[in-house]
C-alpha cells in the first residue's frame, strides 16, 4: 500500500506516521506539508475552503512533482485542499481520507467520477463539541464568562433579573446527528425536554434519545435554548434569519458551535442589539479571526469563543486512528459508513475493481 500524507501545522507527519505504522505497518509512505505556518493564516485559508470548496485552495508546492515520482493509492489530508488537478494527477489513487468531519477541502465530485471512495471522520469531535455546547448554554445564561470578565476589569456585578436554570427547560436541537445526539445525552441529568428539527433523522434515533421531532418554527417558538448542529450547505445557509429569530422567545438563547453560515449575520446582530432574544453564544464566525471592529462584539448579551469546541487532546488522538480503522474495515468487509460519496450497496462493486481491496 502506498500512502501520501498531506500534513499541516495541526496534524503533523509524526502523528500521521505513528498512526499509519500502528494499523498498516508495511505501507510505503511519503509526506508533504501544506504551507500555512501560523494559526491565523491556517484559519483564513481553511475558512476560504470551507466556504468555497476545494478548488478555492492551493495544494502544497511540489505535489505534482511528487505524484509523478510516487504514485499513491491512498491520500490522507486534514485541512490540505485535494482539488481536481491533484486527483487527476494521482493515476493510481483509490482512496481519499479526510481527517475531519466535513469534506469541504476534497473535490468529492471529481473523486466520485473516478469511483474513488472519500472517507470523512464523522464523530471525531462529537464528544468535545457536545460538552462545549452544554458549557456554552451555561456560560451564556448564567453569565459565567461575563462575570469573569467584569471581575477581571475591577467590577463586581450581578444582573438585574435572576437568570434561569437549565433544569427542566426545553432545548431545541437543529440537526440531530452525532453531535446533537451527544448533547441530548449529556443533558439527561438536567431533566430537559428535547425538541429536534432534522428532516433526515430516523424515528428510532429520536426515540432512543427521548427527543420529539417538530418543525423548525415550532422548535423556535418553544425552546429556551436553540442549539445549531446542522451542516453548512446551500440548503441550510441563513437557516436562522430575521423571521426565525422573531419566532424565538424573548427569554431564549441561540447557541452555535456548528457553522456561522447557518445564521444570518445582520439579523442576529439586530436581534441581540434590540434584545429580541435573551442572548447568544457563538464559537464560529462569518470571518475568522474576528476583526477588532466586528459588530458581533458590541452587544452585551453575547458570549464569544475563538472556534474552540472541537479542540481537545482526545480529538487529536482520534483524528488519525479513526480514518485508518475505517479504511481497514472497508478493505476487509468492502463496506464502511464513513464513505461520503457511495452508498453501502455501491461500495462492494467499487471494491471489486480496487487493487487495495483484493
What would you note in describing this structure?
- The chain is an alpha/beta fold and about 350 residues long.
- α4 (about 85-90) links the parallel β3 (about 75) and β4.
- The protein is globular and about 70 Å long.
- α1 packs parallel to α13 (about 315-335).
- The protein is built from 14 helices and twelve strands.
- The strands form two sheets. The protein has a seven-stranded parallel sheet, with helices on both faces. A five-stranded parallel sheet has the order 2-1-3-4-5.
- The mean pLDDT is about 95.
SSE layout and pairings?
Elements: E1 2-7, H1 13-23, E2 28-33, H2 39-52, H3 63-69, E3 74-77, H4 84-89, E4 95-98, H5 108-113, E5 118-119, H6 126-141, H7 144-152, E6 170-174, H8 178-186, E7 193-197, H9 203-208, E8 211-213, H10 216-222, E9 225-228, H11 242-247, E10 253-256, H12 265-273, E11 279-282, E12 302-304, H13 313-333, H14 344-352
Parallel strand pairs: 1-2, 1-3, 3-4, 4-5, 6-7, 6-9, 7-8, 9-10, 10-11, 11-12
Helix pairs in contact: 1-13, 6-8
